[in-house]
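Re: your question about Sugar ABC transporter substrate-binding protein

S., sorry for the slow reply, the queue was backed up all week. Below is exactly what I fed in.
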Amino acid sequence: MTLSACGGGGDDSGASDTVRVTLVNHVWTENIRKALPEFEQQSGLKVEVTQLGEDQLSDQYNVKLNAGSDDIDVMMYRPLQEGRLFAKNGYLADLTDKAKENADFDFADFQDAPVSATTYEDKVVGIPIITEQQVLYYRKDLLEKSGFSAPPQTLDELKAQAIKIQADNPGVAGFVARTGKAAAVTQFSSFLYSFGGDFVDESGNSAVNSEAAKQAYAFYGGLLREQGPANISTDMSWSEAMAIFTQGQAAFYPEANSLYANATDPSKSRVAENVGFAPFPAGPAGSKPYNIPSWGLAINEASGNQTNAWKFIEWAAGKEQSLEQQKTGTPGARTSVFENPEATSTYPEDMAQAITVSLANGVGHDRPVVERVAQAREIVGQPIVDAITGRDAAASADTAHEAFQKFLDDEAR
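Result:
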């Protein structure tokens, strides 16, 4: 591999052959660190890595970026959690010219949905490196026992199969999913899109009380209330829902593909041999699961070493490294890599097929695209909890709409 010259300008007032990179604890990071000697030898640069947990990473960014510190060159960040806030505050350098003028980097190779989340006001401010798609986990043995020859292709079939399997297997829930007010929002989003809704409309106003949204809230909550585990709690995140599924207590579980090893590893799952994966079932608007960048790479606008920072990014997010990452089970955002059979050779075959559907129909966000994401999730997640507990989902959606619209108006000021 040769490193090409980067396109576009950049602040090089503090140019240095040492690139300071801040990364999160992740398999992607471990893989990159192992490959760094190759990059350093080819580029003549030295990479200084700071590796932190998610909370520590957020704390450091909050302090250093707000202070305009220039001691971070490259930053690993969450485009859908803090990307909009960072971009609005001017923390992220404009990478548009660097990305699009470099033919070898081939920016057009990145999928549209993840790129939409790393773009702000028509400027490329980040490069997606790790993606997630929602798929349907299911128990092959339970489907066979109840006479189903294939997993559900529609949400209506999902409900029908969940009802039948639950009736045939006392003590086993037909369906399990995240239930926590904020935690459930991301997985609920695919239901929302597949019913034809979204969190905001094309004008940027709240859409959580649209007819499609009300139907999605009622469906998701009703499925958990009627076909979910007995005495279901309303504070489950992925770990609790996954535990129910892997202990053999549920037939269907919609979740991010990035967590699949928890279900297929015999040391973690009692049902490992019987777990199957299917594309997200189609709703009235079709199958529209999310396809999101969970992590991206950006350059600190305050960095004086932006040209060399970009050289690191074009290597770390290049085709060769993306392929190596995907072979270890870390999905990227490059179309060419997903089309390479070698990239998905380590995945279960049905998982690879399910991901293909998500890539074709995927939506680039799994939560409201706002600055104060945590607060927004609390608002739009309340109707989920209300639907699970048997309250009027439509009335709750109307209440959430009023609160969310006020939230959006406040952010726009």
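The chain has two domains: 18-131+293-361, 133-290+365-412. Strands lie at 18-24, 46-52, 74-77, 119-120, 123-124, 127-139, 173-175, 250-256, 275-278, 291-299.

Happy to talk it through on Thursday.
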